[in-house]
What does this fold into?
Amino acid sequence: MEEINIKDYLSLVRKPSRYIGGEINSVKKDLSRTALKFGLGFPDAYELGMSHLGLQVLYQTLNSREAIACERVFAPWPDMERLLRDKGERLKTLESGIPLNCLDIMGFSLQYELSYTNVLNMLDLGGIALLSGQRPENGPFVIGGGPAAFNPEPVAAFFDAFLLGDGEEAALEIADCVMEGRKNKETRGSILKKLASIEGVYVPEFFEVLYKEDSTIKEIKPLVEGYKFVRKRTIPDLNALPLPTRPIVPFAETIHDRCTVEISRGCTRGCRFCQAGMIYRPARERSAQNIIKIIDETLKATGYDEVSLLSLSTGDYTLIETLIVGLMRRFSCERIALSLPSLRVGTLSPTVAGEIKKVRKTGFTLAVEAGSPRLRCLINKGITEQDLLAAIENIFSLGWRSVKLYFMLGLPTETDKDVEDIALLAGRIKKAAKTAAIGFSPQITISVASFIPKAHTPFQWTAQIPLDEAKKRQAALGKRLSSLGIELKWHDARMSEIEGAFSRGDRRVKDALIAAFKKGARFDGWGDCFDFNLWQEAFKEAGLSVDFYCHRDRGLDETLPWEHLLTGATKEFLHDEWQKSLALAETPDCKTGVCSSCGICDFKKIRNRPVKKDAPFADPAPCAPRAASMKVFKKRLRFSKTGDVRFLSHLEMGSAIQRAFKRAGVNLRYSGGFHPKPRLSFSQALPVGTESLDECMDVEIEEGGGKPENSVIMERLNTTLPNGLKILEVSDEALKDSAASAKMFEYYVFLNRFFDKLSSTDKTKTSGEDTGPGALKAVPLGIDGLIRDFLGSQTFIAEIEKGGAVKKIDLRPAVSAIELTEDMALKISINEGSGVRPEHIVSAVFGISRQAASLVPVLKIRAVH
It folds into this structure.
């Protein structure tokens, strides 16, 4: 079968920029010079995966070794999956197009349980056997990591190994183990035994699970001597790690499209519902100097204009005020905005909020979790209503217009009164916001999700509330908030039901997962893709009960599926915390209070490592404020857009170019207002998939010195632009006309390339005969006749798709000329403003489908002004 290039068909899928690779800071190595091919997979859409800091860090870590080629792969959206299956193509890595079954290691980041069907789909599309026991000796080792790996039992059959805990050092050790084993021609079993000797690595096949008649676990039986438990991997000191400063800059807009830096790892607050707070202990803070260095170098390498400080509780960073004041001193003049993730109430001071607003008011989200003081005490969320209302007043008095607050429904012992208390508290929040806001109406959004008991937490023994009860409480809360004029957003309780079954499931749950996958379950974390009925059928076919895994209390003597996997927090500590929760007893933060005796620390190597309050801190040099005498220069730039970047949308291209200006150190002038924007404008948007040799944009550049040289601007930009975008000319003409003032556009439409790749099965009726594209190739005179017929007609009505709707339009007035070249290319001139594209003409004139016509390669050769 002739191999195809799937990129030739990307015009058929949504967001083709997800699949092209070639982004700034991505790494494509000469595979003949490497010893190990490592696939780094994220089982969700590109825009989620590229927002995940852990993936970016591991990518940089693995590629720092010359012998390792680490390449990315993401879950293909359903339209791309259909395309791959229709064409008989394997799922491949972005950088070099390596089929997944040709990798040495296929690693998956398991961030949430509802991504499991995507894991199976990626394995299947990549040609990797789903079950680990069915993989050949030379097949890739499939390895999982991330928070869901702390109870990997529902997916244990599909993975050769899991990594529990921190990955920077362990990932390299895993790579070395497989590389050495392959070099020495060791058996798969031998390599797995060596992997099991790496701290933090769990190999499921070395344990057997036995069950009782009541379906609970009787025993988790070790099968390898000395391999009874697996303890998570912990990096003792974040400051000892290489600084990750060259993240990939995505083409597609991602969920967190900014420079993200981890300021601390782990949390000691002790919230009893929070799995991350338990499994990532102890708390380790990065030095303020290292944080600023990471941000400084990352901004230069990426061109981002926003920085996010990431941790489980950002406001708890010891020197948070000092750090933020220093960051704004260093970067505010460069219009770099600062954002913080969900904040703990009580950690948002007026100083922090005031600094953040200097550039741009990024969003605020406060994690309240429970509406009543009783429940906040039960979950050890030691915040007061007074602190919450004070934070709200600070936010709105400083000019913010909206705030989001997170709550959970279904916490242990929750009553109807506790649900009512959320609404009552929301009302008091709205009142405080109105008092603080001057000249505008504050927006309060309440977001709720069903509480899911997680493994390795004090609530791992408790039942999840039934689905009907979850829906009832959501409805009651929604009704109360609606009467207060407050918006409620909620997570689908049916999704929480399935997530709960996998969160505390055992190995038998794999059968329901396989059944759901075969029925077509994909992207279950997306509301418009999730099919609850399908999952109900899958569990029924597997002979399993969701109730068994979700809606029953576990006895303290029950063997839990994850008991052989150790986070360091002892079972005794978790049980004591469960009992203390029922007694409404507080456990203080062990970073600032007494040790909670959780079992994590050895107080030598593994311990809390906060930065010292009196640690020396060299205040970063301030950025130079833009002088009032700054001169503005207007420039017109002509550029080309060819190769894979033809699949960037107009907005994606604009973002890529804007970041190139920042990397190049060419200062764009910005607008004023709430959200300043750079002053640049482009010519008419180019259709996705169309190449061009003549694009145009107008920009305004600020300089404090003399007039910038056009040749210097062009050279600096061309060294920072992605491959395929190239500045052809920079001029400083009067710019009387805007960049979008062209009267006509000329295109080449390459019918010859189209015929070579398009299946001849796409046939339509023309002049009473079956005339597919394959037949047209043999009769160029027929094409010439169709062109003459079109040019000779007064009107030519055709159906085209615009804005998702099919409309009838007269194509004839839009076309100035069509000419057929000797090598069977069309030269078409289309009037500006007509809304007609070359593929519309090809489809209508030659009688082929709009979908087939979109595959015709098109090159815009010039704009006529």
Notes: The chain has 26 helices and 32 strands. The longest strand covers residues 691-703.
